[in-house]
Amino acid sequence: MRTLLLLLLVIVIFGVLLATQDANLTNEVRLALPFVDADWTGPVLWMIGGWFGAGLLLGYLAALPGRLGASMRARKVEKELTQTSVERSKAISHLNEPAPPAPARRPATTEADEMQRLADEVARRTETVHRDNPPPAV
To answer: Is there a contact between 47 and 62 (Cβ–Cβ < 8 Å)?
Structure first.
């Protein structure tokens, strides 16, 4: 989209300059740079075209560091992506291996039996714990 708009702008400017070509080629423009003894004179058409081209060149050069940085970041991410895909394929290959059998658990016959088994296990694990009761209230 941007390229199309830029192309249309160039075509419009070129058309306007060519439509007024007699005036643009006969009228001279004097360009004096400050702090320098340079003095340029030339037709309006060539001056406008030259400055437009210089603006395009400066815009491209200004955008160049960002484009280079983006391409370096893209290459870095591409390398990380290949490493990640290799690690992923290794992980998937481990998933395809058969899982070790689960330890056999005896099924609880009723919910009350399971609750009793859990209570016994908690009591066995906490029988060595000594609780310090808080001091009595005065």
So the answer is: no
